[in-house]
Amino acid sequence: MTVMLELNNVSKSFVKKTGQGIVRINAVDNVSLSVTEQSNVGIIGESGSGKTTLGRIMTKLTEPDSGLITYRSVNVTGKKRKKLSEFRREVQMIFQDPYSSLDPRMSVRAAIADFMKLGGNEPDQEHISRYLSMVNLDDDILDKRPRDISGGQRQRVAVARVLALNPRIIVADEPVSALDVSIRSQVLTMFQDIRRRAGITFVYITHDISTLPYVAEQMHVMYRGRIVESCDIRSLISEPLHPYTMGLLAAVPDFNKDTADISRHIKSTSDVDMVPEHGCSFYYRCAHALPVCKDVDPPLAEQEKGRLVACHLYGSREASNGEEADDHFRNVEKK
Ligand SMILES: Nc1ncnc2c1ncn2[C@@H]1O[C@H](COP(=O)(O)OP(=O)(O)OP(=O)(O)O)[C@@H](O)[C@H]1O
Ligand code: SF4
Ligand SMILES: [Mg+2]
Predict the structure, then answer these.
(1) Residue at a domain's end among 202, 219, 236
(2) pTM higher than 0.85 for the full model?
(3) Closest Cα to atom 26, ligand 1: which residue?
(4) Ligand 1 pocket, 50 CB below 6 A?
(5) What is the DSSP code string of 214-237?
């Protein structure tokens, strides 16, 4: 499988005013991942975990403070998106709120024609209709403006417009969370149809784990700017390894089996922002924490082929003291 896009140890921090004064937030912290051609990548995590920042780094809408970005074997780090004509056309982002990405003065026809021109093609009715049909819309919408159509139609138009550029990768950031629950599955199914028909690589960003069945293949779970677990979707749902992933799944009735109780994995604490100085950033929320977790930050390590997890309960026995982890598992199994 050809790697299209690769991030190596990318980080991005922001300075933010909070109740405690000005703090530096590591929105994306040392993240590495690769996106292979025509794959379907999912990024999941709760609000503020850094998903949008990571998506913006992938599409070069935000430049990381450090790390390397490679697109089709070319190092694009530090280069302005504007100056990268191929990247600019081929790697696109779709946002949660289609209203903000569409020009309110432009008709649907003009919006798609505009992007065709940007992609170096002369707009014509046949192609405009084809892009619309790819998102299951008819020509009778062509002369309407964003305010005249529904939220679901607006998101479809935003996608049709991006398709007019013939992209190779689409990063979709919470593309259905602003839509009515009743049409979310239709729009997600549409994304998958497009992926299959047009051979586009998809990166799907969401905080809503219940939409996961619509995204397949490689999943990355984010917590506080880091990837804490990576694996294929089936393994993630059937056998989550990281306590945070276990908690996310336990919160969704469709996915939890015997682990209906989220508190078995995530402690309820009023101070979710507390993080030990050197240890695991999930320590104060983790119902499985070992003493070592407070002092040693667990690296993201491979447990088996294609399964990575950053947690002392697995693998990194040198750092975690294997006996401690073994005792923990024995206790969990007894429960
Ligand atoms: N431009 C910015 N300036 C300051 N802080 C920012 C900026 N962008 C993001 N952040 C902070 O970085 C952290 C990660 O934000 P990000 O939007 O990437 O998270 P997210 O996972 O997409 O969250 P959500 O699910 O709410 O969309 C948050 O604490 C956020 O407040
Ligand atoms: S390293 Fe420790 S605190 Fe962190 S998730 Fe694993 S068990 Fe919990
Ligand atoms: Mg976001």
Answers:
(1) 219
(2) yes
(3) 47
(4) yes
(5) GS-SEEEEEETTEEEEEEEHHHHH
